[in-house]
Every structure is written in structure tokens, then in C-alpha cells.
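Marked as duplicate of an earlier ticket. Keeping the data here for the record.
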Amino acid sequence: MVEDNKAVNTVSSEETDANITENAAPVDVSENDGSSAEKPEKKSFWNENKVEIIVAILLGVTALLTAWASWIGSLHGGIQAINFTKSNNTSSQATSAYNLGLQMFLSDIMTWNTMMDYSFEMAMAESDGNQDKVDLINEKLKTYTEQNASDILMEGIKWMKDNDEDSPFKMPQITEKYFTDAEEKSEEARDLLKEGQNDNARGDAYNLVSVLYSLVLFLLGIVGIFKRLPNRIGVLSIALVILIGALIYMLTIPLPTGFNIWNYIGLR
């Protein structure tokens, strides 16, 4: 019995020492589930509310830009039609001026030939010593010249006398003088046609800008159908890139000739 009691006391003593050692061991704080050991998560800049606000702002801006591009494009189209009409009218005037110059040129040739005939008759009268006939022919020649010779022919005759030539049509560029008005009208018609073509190209460019803005509106409209935020941000980013690119391109396109916005709001 004594040995049994000693064995029981020995076991109890060992269990007590083990409990003391276990209780005295340091506690590993890292194994606890306390919130003090966790780092706080960083909040992302993007969230659904911000995306919706940005989409709403971009929708309004893009709608205004689309309206502006459509309006300026229509102005270019109107000016193009006006320039084409003016070009056609001016071309008709150039054709009339050319025909008139040709008629004047042919008329001056006939006038010069007739004047030469009068001069020949006057020379024959002088050789015969018939002064009355010389005076008569000289008077006819003077009257005929005043009534039929153009200013260009008179200029050529003066040049002929000053340079001791036998024909006024040897004067440099005398033929071009008959078609000066026609050439000026033709040049004006070409300028108007070119300006009309430029307006046509600019109007087409503004139409392209309107198409790009419509694409931006489409992308902004479908942002809300995506459930995940990264997908929304991706579509929004694509729309924003296209919007900026279209805006930069639009700013490089010249406005219509003589355009002044103050005229449309009654300030000028």
C-alpha cells in the first residue's frame, strides 16, 4: 500500500509540473485571430459611383461636341454649294469674255487691213499730186479709226510708230491683252472651285468626327451593362481615348471661311 501511494504521488507530481511548464510557456501572438495583427486594405481610386459620374459627364460633353461637329459640317456643305455656283457663273463670264476678246481681236485685224487700204489710196493720191483727195482720204481714215479701232489696237499703232515697225500686232503680248478679262475670270473661277473642293473635304472630315463621337456615345452607353468594375473601366478608357483623339483631329480642321460665332448669337 505504501508503494502504491508513492506511485500515485509521483504521477500527480509529474502532471502538476507539466501543467506549470505548459502554463509558463510564452504565448505566440501571431497564432491569435485578433484584428490588431492584420494590415488595413488600401481603398482603390475607382469605384462604381465615380465611374457613373465620369460616364455622365462624358456623355454630356460628347453630345455637345457631336452637335458642334454636325453644325460646322453643314456650314461647310452650304459654303461648298455657294462656291460651286459662283465658280460656274464665273466660268460662264470667262467664256463670254473670251468670245468678246476674240471678236475684238478679229475686228481689229479687219480694221487694220482697212486702214492699210486707206493709207495705200492716200499714198497714190499724194503721188498724183491730188491734195484734195489726200485730205479726203485722211479724214476718212481718221474717222474710221476712231469708230472701229480698239484701245489695244491704238496702243499697238503707237508702239509701231515709236519702234519703226510695219504692224501693230508685232507688239509683245498684244494678243494676250485681248483675253486679259477672260483670264482673270477663269482664275477667279478656278479659285472658287478650289475653295469649294476644300470646303467639301472639310465637311467630310467633320462628318468623320461626328461618326467618332457617335462611337464614343455607344461605348459610354454600354459601360453599365458590364458587371465587373475592371470591365467598365476598360470600356470607359477606350471611349475616352477615342474622344480625345477625335477632339484633337477636329481642332486641326479649319473653320468655314469668314466664320464668326458672334454673328450667330446677335453680338455682331
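See parent ticket for discussion. Residues 100 and 127 are 40 Å apart (CA to CA).
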